[in-house]
Specification:
The N and C termini lie far apart (about 75 Å). The protein folds into 2 domains: about 140 residues, Rossmann fold; about 150 residues, 3-Layer(aba) Sandwich (Rossmann fold). By secondary structure, it is of the alpha/beta class. Helix content is about 45%, strand content about 20%.
Length: about 325
């Protein structure tokens, strides 16, 4: 009896010892894909967290079957071509490009490497893709806006919060080709309809933002429309701190900036957009062609109002506006 038990134990140990190398070999042979991320400022924040979460949900785990190379330009757009070239030299299976300028740099450098773009307002209008339904080429992804009136709507919301304001400044990045295409056709006509004088101030790098705010103050602006650019929203507290010192009520594109102290924001759910971008990354890595994946536009825009900031500025936000807000920070 004892002899049979010993024999059985030996057989189990032999089978186990044979199986362990097979498991180790399977782990070693699991394919590791390489993902590049190119962004205009820093590749971090709520959107990037959502992207990572989405990738994990699809089974792509950084450090196991996924290697991620991140390159951020720190707001200095002139660095993007070199950063894109760095990523391409690493031979990624796919590049995620965030905002217009990084997407342009990635397209110029990537050759046949597929690109998932996030946060490009009008990719057709600036020549990045052929159409939204069938983008063609190597790029697909998600737009920030639905072109045609979005900037005007943001300006209208700001003037509703500031019913007595007659002079409104607009902060734009002149090196953002999408912004410079959309802004002239959208915001000045809206300002004329609303009966406010528009004062345009420009900043093309983070070091110029403070000077642009000072210029708006010198021009006696009573409010500020921040026309979307990643440089203006990352880090999220920088611009709210500057405009608070200047005493300027402002509206932004990104919820996180309002949560960090901005007065109000109106824009898409960026975390959801990045999360959905992960599904496109997954589909392309599994064989889908970017040319066949339609570019998606936002279907919902969120209005967020920070009453703490309103109180610090001495403002009373109309109840009619508060009732339409998706989130009110008290």
């Amino acid at each position: 009896m004892l002899q049979k038990a010993v024999l059985g134990l030996g057989l189990v140990l032999t089978v186990c010892s044979m199986s362990f190398p097979l498991v180790a070999q399977a782990q070693q042979t699991e394919k590791v894909v390489r993902l590049g991320i190119l962004c205009g400022v820093r590749c971090e924040g709520a959107g990037y967290d959502a992207l990572n979460e989405g990738l994990r949900r699809h089974g792509w785990i950084e450090g196991r079957n996924l290697t991620v190379d991140r390159r951020g330009a720190g707001g200095e757009q002139a660095r993007l071509p070199a950063l894109a070239a760095e990523l391409v030299a690493l031979k990624p299976d796919l590049i995620v490009a965030v905002a217009p300028q990084p997407t342009r740099a990635a397209k110029d450098a990537a050759g046949t490497i597929p690109i998932v773009m996030v946060g490009v307002a009008d990719p057709v209008g600036v020549g990045l893709v052929q159409s939204l339904a069938r983008p063609g080429g190597t790029i697909t992804g998600f737009t920030t806006l639905v072109p045609g009136g979005f900037g005007g709507k943001s300006l209208a919301l700001l003037t509703e919060a500031l019913p007595r304001a007659k002079r409104i400044a607009a902060l734009v990045n002149p090196k953002n080709d999408v912004a410079m295409k959309l802004f002239p056709a959208d915001v000045p006509p809206a300002a004329a309809r609303l009966g406010v004088q528009l004062i345009v101030v420009e900043a093309s790098s983070p070091t110029l933002i403070e000077g642009a705010i000072e210029a708006a103050v010198r021009e006696r602006a009573e409010g500020l429309l921040v026309f979307g650019d990643p440089m203006f929203h990352n880090p999220p507290q920088r611009l709210p701190d500057l405009v608070a010192r200047a005493g300027l009520p402002a509206i932004y594109l990104v919820r996180e900036v309002t949560q960090a102290g901005g007065l109000m924001s109106y824009g898409p759910d960026f975390a959801d957009m990045f999360r959905r971008a992960a599904s496109y990354v997954d589909r392309i890595l599994k064989g889908a062609r970017p040319a066949d994946l339609p570019i998606e536009q936002p279907t919902k825009f969120e209005l967020v109002i920070n009453l703490k900031t309103a109180s610090a500025l001495g403002l009373t936000i109309p109840q009619s506006l508060l009732l339409r807000a998706d989130e009110v920070i008290r």
